[in-house]
Amino acid sequence: MIRRQTGTVPGCSELQGDFNNMNELSAFPKGFTAIVVGSTGGLGSAFVALLERDPRCGHVVRLSRSSRPPLDLEDEASIERAAASLAARGDVHLIVDATGILHDPAMRPEKSIGQVDPEVIARAFAINATGPLLLLKHFHHLLPRKGRSVFATISARVGSIADNRLGGWYGYRASKAALNMFLRTAAIEISRKRPDAICLALHPGTVKTRLSEPFAADRERFEAEYSAQMLLDVMNRAEPSAEGAFVAYDGSDIPW
Ligand SMILES: NC(=O)c1ccc[n+]([C@@H]2O[C@H](COP(=O)([O-])OP(=O)(O)OC[C@H]3O[C@@H](n4cnc5c(N)ncnc54)[C@H](OP(=O)(O)O)[C@@H]3O)[C@@H](O)[C@H]2O)c1
After folding, report:
1. Which member of 24, 109, 136, 234 lies 3.0 to 4.6 Å from 169 by CB, making a disulfide possible if both were Cys?
2. Helices (H) and strands (E) in the chain, counts
3. Superfamily holding 29-248
4. Mean of the per-residue pLDDT values of the chain
5. Model pTM?
6. pLDDT given for residue 2 in this prediction
7. Ligand 1 pocket check: which of 47, 63, 97, 99 to mutate, most ligand atoms within 8 Å of Cβ?
């Protein structure tokens, strides 16, 4: 699925040292349009900054709850309006969904089953799974019928059912697993009319953003721009596949 760079993946600090050497997004057409949803977030703003510096990228559309038009994942009409506002632009070759939630003042990831609250679980699903599915519903029409294009959603390794060894974080894990299933299901359908479209669920590593702050502040974390650069490189190297793929920042496949 991903054409690998040569060499093994070294430790995280070494990796952070050499990302400036990465190339432009050579697999996308010159002057291509990219959309970043969640452009206000740690990873989302890093994607915007990198795409704006990429000489191949002609235009970057930022969408968020505070953009014009605003896009709120919990309000389907706002998603539909945002997609409709872009329909006249022509083909969009890259759509990156960098939205997501792990915690907010009313929401903490559960350490044990006793902490499970149906309202919190429903909110995690609404933002982490149903919202991105609605993005796929309304935005996939913007991808070209012919030629390579990418729809990438930022998932998380903890959404892997096969890789779950620690337990906990019921709502976040399950909502990311649902996101992965939605992505793969949509990939199969999208590939029928857009055989060169690539749908990716991506794991960014542990990244220094407000999402990870309360849980990983004492751990080694990637800078957002470093993780976003690695993920753009994955998007650049990915090959069409009717089933989509679940891939980490270093290009390695993650079991669904
Ligand atoms: N950071 C990590 O270590 C890590 C690890 C694994 C996976 N991830 C995933 O990476 C993605 C990006 O996270 P991040 O670390 O960059 O976190 P972040 O800085 O908190 O960004 C989250 C983004 O999601 C947006 N968002 C939240 N609720 C929304 C809604 N209802 N409608 C529209 N947008 C909404 C936020 O918009 P507002 O600015 O309007 O709130 C913000 O742009 C998430 O899917 C996360 O699960 C992150």
Report:
1. 109
2. 8, 6
3. NAD(P)-binding Rossmann-like Domain (3.40.50.720)
4. 92
5. 0.93
6. 56
7. 99
